[in-house]
Amino acid sequence: MTYQYRQRLPDTPLDIIGDVHGEADALFALLDHLGYRADGSHPEGRRLVFVGDLCDRGPDSPRVLAWFKQAHDAGFAYMVLGNHELNALVGDPKDGSGWYFDARREKDDVLYAPWRVLPEAEKPELAAWLAQQPLVLEREDLRIVHAAWLPESMERLEAAGGEDLRTQYRRYDTELNNILAQAPWYGDYLAEQQCYAEACENPEKLPPPMPATAAYELQRSRLHPIRALTSGVEEPAKAPFYASGRWRFTARCAWWQNYHEETPVVIGHYWRHWYPKAPDPHRENLMPSENNAWHGVRGNVYCIDYSVGARWRDRKNGTAAADSVFRLAALRWPEKTLVFDNGETAPTR
């Protein structure tokens, strides 16, 4: 089957849901507030769109994915792939993926357990189905991508001519690795990884300077077109910071400040906050200070990820979901209003 990385949204009103990260209870509460039936249908003919990262970290990624698959196959729901789905597809164990990768389970259980683990026998079917999901959804009035709208990356995907997604991903990886292996700092990168890879996962202690690792991460974010769309491009960080299970030396950058097209873009990935939060001197702080604001040079990009993927912290400290500062949200389109998993609503601005 020819892979279509770019697919069309239906011409109906939409509810665009942010990164779910395995938080099944929050998802089903939100769907109820939005008026959806148990099968994902809506009495007014609305359709669901997910911006990716349905899985990892939360208590029941298998349930979230299974529900989405049946709703999608019935024509009620759509998704773009996020970086977390891609990690599963290409066999890349990352923080919070112990529900899928045995190699991550012991380490991830410390933070994220209890959670449901996907049976080994179900993995091939899930991976084959995910591999058919697009990276981009669009129609005349709207564009959906997980992290970054990057025409230069899409040009390379167009040139692939429908090549299988996993084959494409690994081909770009091979091409990228060949380029990186020729860099003058590559030997230093290998040495840094051999010495400090484990230390980079310790949040309590800053690892020593790793300039070659920083150079490697920077090039890796920019030269792989699938990774660029789903993780965003990066720039050198002002200082190392700890995020998603390891110390980082490059930081996400605000591509939307260079997006000059008229069509609005809705994304996830960037972990904005509904409640006021002081800027973190070690993080990118890319989101506008107004918690319901569109952003970008034309004010037509919206991040709908309100950090529900951090609710594992609530479970560790005994905070009830009703009292959580981390939310799951939907952006209603064309209304441009927000609905949250606790039933609250708000306009965007």
- What is the average per-residue confidence, as pLDDT, rounded to a whole number? 95
Largest sheet strand order: 4-3-2-11-12-13
Radius of gyration: 19 Å
> Termini, distance in Å?
42 Å
Largest sheet entry: 6 strands, mixed
Number of helices: 11
**CATH topology group of the largest domain:** Purple Acid Phosphatase, chain A, domain 2
Strand percentage lies at 15-25%
The structural domain count equals 2
Structural class per helix/strand content?
alpha/beta
SSE ordering: EEHEHEHHHEEHHHHHEEEEHEEE
Helicity level: 25-40%
- So what's the CATH class of the largest domain? Alpha Beta
Globally, the shape reads globular
Q: Name the poorly predicted regions.
A: none
What CATH architecture of the largest domain would you give? 4-Layer Sandwich
CATH superfamily grouping of the largest domain = Metallo-dependent phosphatases
**How many DSSP E strands?**
13
Protein name: Serine/threonine protein phosphatase
Domain Calcineurin-like phosphoesterase: 14-101
GO molecular function, one term: phosphatase activity
Give a structural overview:
It is built from eleven helices and 13 strands. It has 349 residues and is of the alpha/beta class. It has two domains: 238 residues, Metallo-dependent phosphatases (Purple Acid Phosphatase, chain A, domain 2, 4-Layer Sandwich); 89 residues, no CATH class. The strands form three sheets. The protein has a six-stranded mixed beta sheet. A hairpin with a 2-residue loop joins β5 and β6. α9 crosses α10. It is globular and about 60 Å long. The mean pLDDT is 95. One of its GO terms (molecular function) is phosphatase activity. This is Serine/threonine protein phosphatase.
